[in-house]
């Protein structure tokens, strides 16, 4: 393909390469004029500064929009409190590595730990260890195997997400005969994917006129979303509704839909990305709704951690103590309420 | 014109040597005969062993018999078939034909384990030790003393220490990693491993090559101890004086056949042994040398080597080759002849000196520069270094001249093909078909493909390293004629060969090498085999 | 010790095993007619037995490999036609399969060349990810279509350059060097994107993936794939570069001693692989309308698997672009077939593994039948 370059040409080529390199490095910037990270919905829990609290935060590698939003929410929330110092670890998807990171935090004697484990079951022991060391643990989203491993769990509701998506679709299609529904799931070997599908199926059982005709699993990536959606569209020449588990892979799915030139159905997303909410608001695509799996839970986790550290309860509740578990509601965001949720959308 | 080896040499007729007679060849009554085991059967008799690899017949009816308690030396040039033979003996290669009898019983050596269980242990030149295990672990590898699946470490360690002491190396700690031992130390470990089995026959492949003189003495002592215990040793070495000291009988291999069998190791004249190794048992047919050129019209040398040296391999060498001239490098293995050739070609980087082609210096250590300057090499290991075995003849021939058949990188395949076909036809390749895969060709024809490559490239200097290695006898004459013809067409040829008659018969001028030094230069017609043998062995290759 | 005794065996050329071959290759005339040197010359090594059948082995071999793969493809099509006749055989579906194959297909062409040249490239997926992310940052998007394309290609080339220099001149083992590139390119992609999906808002880029820009009903992606395949084929079969690649992969030492600049050859091969990754990244951007650091997941394995079932020797020195592209098409068709039949991921993965094994087994059998050792 490339004939041997004489050195003279080589020089020119080299020079071009260097300048191209310089141009390229300037291209790594992702700064935009728009407002950056989304803010958590509600105001801070209790703005009056109290006893200083050091919160250790350990999460998985932020290689995905939602996880990235989790980190940002935690950081932003901690910054709002003068009395909170956040010790945040480099995220890791490796169980052993995450255990090591958490042990470091324990050794540093942080006051409270917020842990989003890469794998809840596998990290149970380290949760137990922290609790035994007298450090209360706020378990974020992916639940530990034992209740003794955390003081408080806060997280999303995967089953509820499927349930709400199914209900929303069911209500819109309940008067249509022989309605067909298609599901684009997430990574199949994750428990959460199975829970979402289970909730979705349970909800659809209430609507005998609706049949789920196809389901394919993508991998939470744009690329896989595009590929699987393209195949689904080919397999089903016509259907009425689509539920996509994840708004990130939804970017690819929407692309496939556009490429196939199809618009006879409506689409419901999952998780609640800013991109999806923008599309819902604009109302110019098949995407009509998305079911939340709010990353604001990380901000709430910081609130809980602070309250635990200062020995307070949660404002607005009669309880003197922090609850043992908080399951968040998976609200359905539609055009009607999108403005309310837009600030929490992650990119 | 070609010298014929000493007629006194024993001449076992290969076709008649099937009788597994314990007595060595007729002309050399063996003093070892009386060592035959009490039951009369020799320890090992191999008869008519054959083994072929694609393109070459490595063993062609080889016989070998070994008595208990003797040191049987195996001699032969590189490629004579020694390695293949000992691999057959070690169970690493399965022979295509022939019979192996062990203490009179026919056996199949189907695997190294089978050979081991008979009591045959082999100490290879490239030692097969696991570097990152300890001495003990290596010695007992595969047969660890164990109880209930657990290695009995102390027992293994103690028995290792005992064996090491027996080998005269009690100073080697059984817990050292083999990685940390010297070459000699590793060899001791390898030998200890052999002795950790109930061994009846030990094959040693050039064991002294890595040893210092005093270590060699120790090796000899060990060999003496072993044979006193009735263990037989098959000993391979290039060093004749070693064979004189410890050997009982000698078998000489040449071109995959037995050149002489059961010679008395101590009394056979050195010259006879060397002649058997290097000589030729057929009348060579060498092409006529051209008449001596008119002294006034001697062409300028096209290849000039000035003070070329590589530390540790060969000392500064000067030589010139004129167009049309064939210059031979003669010497024993290890004399530096191949190294010189590869350094001239730039495949090795010289530590001193320079190479000029057509009066212009060539960048040292740069093959591409050498090829551009018009130098071509037919390497010693034709398959590993010369040929693209998966590819057809045409691509092997054109590979060095691709630029000629291309414009802007695009190949003109028709031109490539016809040019390659032409070159192949000129060398009368058989089959005369440029599309056959080169791996299906015989050794001689494979060599022709390499020559055709450089012929097509139009090179001015041709370096030939063992051009007839692995080439059938009949095809050699043809190659000789070809090489001479190339010279006549104006190519300067520098030739290396283990076979003295080949160098003397083919070359115009000969440089005799000994231990990395040129000891003599003379026109080939002024030399004969005896004279060269004296030169290469002068002072004996003792180290 | 006579001449007669030694030349007695009449140079029994160890007749290469190809002699067993002709069965598969149709009738063979006795070779005597073709051998003028014939039996008359006893010293004629290499004449005689090995000759006739040997001639056709290399061509027949590659053909057979590709043929068996083509057989697998045909079998898949038959299954598709039976199970989902309406959807599977439609023109739309053909377009879909080819489109889905184009990204990994372009990568596979580069990887095939690298493998034939005796190397391996484990970093292709990561390079695709990095290039797709780098080319879709907000800063790059300001330069429009040209900026995105240029950036993707240059990032690919740059990574290929690093791989090539490390391997050819730094004497690193290709496996390790490209493994290191895999890790660092993925890391850099994550760093740049921060794990976000970077949606492309440049209309001209988005437009390329939509039906409006199809040329004669063919998506531009598929055209690029076809062009890269054709170029790859030409480079391998019709250029000195391709010839040298085969030589270096087949026997690097022999190639060096034949005067080929082995190092430069290796460098160029990794450059090509990097460039292919850059092209693939651009195609992926067009296809998905975005860049993401998770792009190109496991491309390295898919590409290598496609090349291997396409008959490329993992040790180098032999392989075809056609075979690799057929391999890619087989994989894409499987995915398509399963999705159309609504089979779930678990079944898909099991079947994919089974088909790799089956394809290679069939090839080995046909190869043996045609007379190789």
Automatic annotation (TrEMBL), chain A:
Highest taxon above the source species = Bacteria
Q: Which Gene3D superfamilies does the entry link to?
A: 3.40.50.2300
Cellular localisation: Cell envelope
**Periplasmic binding protein domain residues:** 55-312
Task: Indicate whether Signal appears among the record's keywords.
Answer: yes
**Keyword line:** Signal
The signal peptide, as residue positions, is none
Tell whether Signal is among the UniProt keywords. Answer: yes
Recorded family membership: Belongs to the bacterial solute-binding protein 2 family.
Q: Would you tell me the protein name for this molecule?
A: ABC transporter substrate-binding protein
What is the source species? Streptomyces zingiberis
